[in-house]
What does this fold into?
Amino acid sequence: MEQPIKSYTGVERAAVLMMLVGDDEAAAILQKLDPEEVRQLGKAMFAVADVSEIEVETVLDDFVGKARARTGVGFDPRPRIESMMNRALGQEKADSVLARITPPADACQIDLLDWLDASEIAGLIEKEHPQIAAVLIANLDPAVGAQVLELLPDGVQPDVLHRIARLGPITPEAVETLKTMLTGRITASQQSNGVLLGGTREAAKIMSSARKTTEARVMPKLFKIDRETAKAIEEAMFVFDNLLELDDKNLGTLIRNIDGDILVRALKGVDESMRGRFLACMSSRAADGIRDELESRGPMRLSEVLEAQKSMIQIARTLAKEGTIMMGGGDDDYV
It folds into this structure.
């Protein structure tokens, strides 16, 4: 049975092309983009690294000949992407961008955690230093991590979440110490370099999996500890794709509160299926008007699209706080 061909967004199609051209050409393109566009395009390049040849042909019909000759499917994209970024931005700026977009390594694994439930893990780390708790929770599935966080004393929860968001390289020696503490068995580390754990995205996943009451209690306290980190976690907890989780009624309410120009710019950068989901929640006349506007507008800078999408997300958050719409997240508490 043939696998369905994936539908790529505009950014992902651009990423496929970037993976096909030479480093010098790719660097020249990156130099013409602003920082947010570089981050988005770099992130997309990781996402399409395993693109199949038939998907290359579908996405890039005009370049199928070059794709067959030069496509880089089935390889580690890190050296290629790092080379592009270094050439385009210089070492310091490239390191900053790569730190935000490089997928976390999977090398740091404490296997015993898979055999313990949330209460047992919480009991193990409750009296440990918050940094140890942060490292261990960052090893867990976000849903389990959220349960463990909720079982810790209220006073330490914001500190632990803050440390998860700010985690950096963890040395193999530190990993072995944690394994010893948990299992009494020392296993030689397979990694000669430090491995990355945590980060804003990991903290956001954990917080998104927590109950609403936990989020409402922890996040305001975290804002007092580190406003910048708390804001980054809050932004990572909800992205444009999450708007699709709204039901038709709530999505329709959101659309009615969005300026037409913002809506057009936001939908310019999404695939047809996502665009159709939004248009289906509008009147036929309004949807036809948006379609006409989308067709009449030429190419649009990625920064404009992202800014419009951020505006929609912010409006959605505001409406949710006011109780005008209901948004998904962790399991809600009812009384």
